[in-house]
Amino acid sequence: MIAQSNILKQIQENLLLQKKSFAVLIDPDKVETGKMTAILNRLPEETDFIFVGGSTVENHKTDLVVKAIKASSNLPIILFHGNVNQISSFADAILFLSLMSGDNPEYLIHQQVKSVKHLKRTALEIIPTGYILIDGGKTCTTERVTETKAIPQTEVEKTVDVALAAQYAGKQLIYLEAGSSARYLVHPRIIKAVKAQVDLPLIVGGGIRTKDQRKSAYRAGADMVVMGTAFEKYIE
Predict the structure, then answer these.
(1) Is 115 annotated as a binding residue?
(2) Per-residue confidence (pLDDT) for residue 182, from 0 to 100
(3) Domain residues of the chain, as ranges?
(4) Among 91, 129, 188, 199, which one has the highest count of C-beta atoms within 10 angstroms of its own C-beta?
(5) Is 55 annotated as contributing to ligand binding?
(6) pLDDT(3) > 50
(7) Topology of 7-234 in CATH?
């Protein structure tokens, strides 16, 4: 297990070593804690991290799921939370997300300010992350909750500029997301363009269901690929 407070360091070292990382996202709204051991037994062997989070789940359910994962796995647990109510002190780290692609200040800074009083009471490793929604061909939950629009797949230059703005603002990770129900994945040309301009580890997720899709994202330049709960159905 990666020692707490060293998760970002490990991701950065993987970048320097050109080692690809893989994470599975578990949405507390979509799993039963009593079945967690069976779910974790189906994780791909190459899984490096477990992300926990969703757009609507509340804190108590996040706590239950994180505890259930801890009881059956030594993999680092990183919170991928939708709002301040989903922070769990039982995880190892949290992606401190700023929704860079939207123009709603609530998810650019206000939620972050609200979370401070909770985070100060935890030992969570806090990882500043620039979160960028890419149009996946279907309105995703994050768009509905945040009342923002994803960046069209055709606007590659804008996506690069947003990613660079995140880097200039001091973010440590860039996360390109097409949404869990995406009809279209983040296009390889977008991944390639962002990777060519940004010096930070690049995470790509949203709608990825197969090993071939993961490999395509890696080839385009993704340093970490995230697969959602769809892995239970689609893993080969």
Answers:
(1) no
(2) 87
(3) 7-234
(4) 91
(5) yes
(6) no
(7) TIM Barrel (3.20.20)
